[in-house]
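Why should sequence recovery work at all? Because a backbone constrains its sequence more than one might expect. Tight turns favour small or flexible residues, buried strands favour hydrophobic ones, and helices have their own preferences. The token representation captures these environments compactly. In the example below, the structure is given first.
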């Protein structure tokens, strides 16, 4: 199999330097192509264009159906969640609260609204993404599925259809002006929505406006800032993506995290630090019904995830000829620069999603049970979905397990030091920031896949250290903070491993 570590390649195309004459269909089908130098391309992500052309129609339809399955599941659970949690007829009022509340990290939508209204929020944003995919006639690829997962994941702790639209439409404007197919940039538009907390902040609080929970109040300045920010983000994020991906050579699957984190850092510095405006706190609100019925939320979400992952596993089993044959081979894959449906088939891909999803669910329950921290909050639910983002193109139980071990090892070291030093450790594995951090740290799995178990553990440990500080860099306005932390970790480890010529144990 061709070595996947190759990152910069060359294209023999006489029209390459003239974007007006550049035709991607001809490029993909050209027999003259040997390699790709992404720096010379007028597109933000050539890999996605190539992936689209290589994804067969049946696979694309099944991947799309899978995303639709999740959207339908959220919709079905909307009335069920409202009923069992006691939210009842307050469902739509609570959803309104979700829309009009500033949403920097970590805004728990279970607390701001409720179980049913949060499910409704995920359903609306999920169906919106499904509809745009259909309208643009875009083939569903593993990367686009990942983008969908990130959208619905963030819908439980910071993203809603109101703050979703400006950055999403910004990429549409970018595509129109650059005369590119919006479908080819659709995954970027979805990734860009992780900047949504800036939109809500501009609309409802900036600069230093008093926010009263449940009251809708916007200014002309706020609307102008929100729209302008969305358009600018639509141009900046596609420009940053190729360069930041090269920084870590694809060893962070959440590759948009670095690009969006850097842009978020700049925006926060400009609008808050530069003007001496204090960065606001997370909205304080006490939802008594939510805290009273916490056990119901825990049980409901466990049933939801277990059901979804088991159905996915069974569906994959059937598609794979009612066998698990080939899954051990998939588990040997490094997870670096891979398309599971293309390499192993769509059946094994769904099997992987089901098994891996159940593993993540088991881990979350274990740390909640054995350490002091949060329960199944909106953010915890969201990051369980975020943790399965790249299960169709890199993540599997074997290469992610060392990353989890790295987090646990770091906690045990810190806990031991705190006992020896006679002070109280201010966090645990079930603290919200570390739950979120671990979910995105799973994107570092190619380190374990390529370099082995020990380097995978090291990657997890380093990311656990970094994740405690990155949110402050952008003021908590980037929902993709875990991807930012993972990206920084990769940028630290890749050059060190290269410098010391650390041997790779897996070229697969």
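From this structural description, the recovered sequence reads:
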């Amino acid at each position: 199999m061709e070595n996947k570590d190759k990152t910069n390649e060359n294209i023999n195309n006489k029209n390459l330097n003239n974007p007006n004459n550049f035709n991607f269909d001809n490029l993909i089908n050209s027999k003259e192509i040997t390699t790709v130098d992404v720096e010379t391309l007028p597109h933000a992500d050539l890999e996605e264009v190539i992936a689209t052309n290589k994804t067969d129609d049946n696979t694309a339809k099944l991947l799309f159906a899978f995303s639709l399955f999740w959207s339908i599941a959220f919709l079905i659970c909307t009335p069920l969640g409202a009923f069992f949690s006691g939210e009842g007829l307050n469902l739509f009022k609570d959803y309104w609260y979700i829309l009009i509340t500033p949403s920097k990290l970590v805004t728990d939508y279970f607390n701001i609204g409720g179980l049913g209204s949060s499910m409704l929020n995920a359903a609306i944003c999920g169906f919106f993404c499904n509809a745009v995919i259909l309208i643009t006639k875009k083939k569903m690829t593993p990367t686009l599925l990942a983008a969908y997962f990130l959208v619905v994941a963030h819908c439980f702790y910071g993203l809603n259809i109101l703050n979703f639209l400006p950055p999403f439409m910004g990429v549409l404007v970018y595509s129109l002006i650059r005369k590119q197919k919006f479908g080819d940039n659709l995954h970027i538009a979805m990734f860009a929505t992780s900047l949504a907390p800036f939109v809500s902040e501009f609309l409802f609080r900036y600069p230093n406006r008093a926010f009263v929970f449940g009251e809708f109040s916007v200014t002309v300045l706020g609307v102008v800032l929100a729209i302008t920010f969305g358009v600018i983000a639509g141009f900046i994020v596609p420009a940053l993506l190729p360069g930041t991906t090269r920084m870590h050579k694809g060893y962070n699957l959440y590759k948009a995290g670095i690009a969006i984190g850097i842009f978020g850092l700049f925006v926060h510095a400009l609008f808050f630090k530069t003007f001496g405006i204090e960065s606001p706190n997370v909205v304080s609100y006490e939802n008594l019904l939510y805290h009273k019925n916490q056990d119901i939320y825990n049980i409901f979400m466990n049933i939801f995830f277990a059901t979804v992952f088991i159905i996915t596993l069974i569906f994959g089993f059937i598609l794979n000829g009612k066998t698990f044959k080939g899954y051990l081979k998939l588990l040997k894959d490094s997870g670096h620069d891979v398309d599971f449906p293309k390499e192993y088939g769509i059946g094994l891909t769904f099997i992987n999603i089901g098994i891996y999803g159940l593993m993540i669910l088991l881990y979350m329950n274990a740390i909640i049970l054995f350490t002091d921290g949060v329960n199944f909050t909106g953010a915890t639910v969201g990051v369980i979905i975020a943790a399965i983002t790249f299960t169709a193109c890199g993540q599997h139980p074997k290469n992610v397990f060392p990353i989890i071990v790295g987090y646990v090892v770091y906690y045990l070291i810190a806990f031991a030091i705190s006992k020896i030093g006679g002070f109280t450790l201010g966090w645990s594995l079930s603290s919200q920031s570390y739950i979120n951090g671990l979910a995105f740290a799973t994107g570092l799995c190619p380190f374990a896949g390529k370099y082995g178990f020990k380097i995978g553990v090291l990657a997890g440990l380093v990311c656990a250290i970094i994740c405690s500080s990155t949110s402050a860099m952008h003021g908590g306005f980037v929902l993709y903070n875990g991807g930012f932390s993972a990206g920084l970790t990769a940028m630290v480890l890749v050059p060190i491993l290269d410098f010391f010529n650390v041997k790779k144990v897996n070229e697969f």
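A few observations help interpret the result. Residues 53-273 form one domain.
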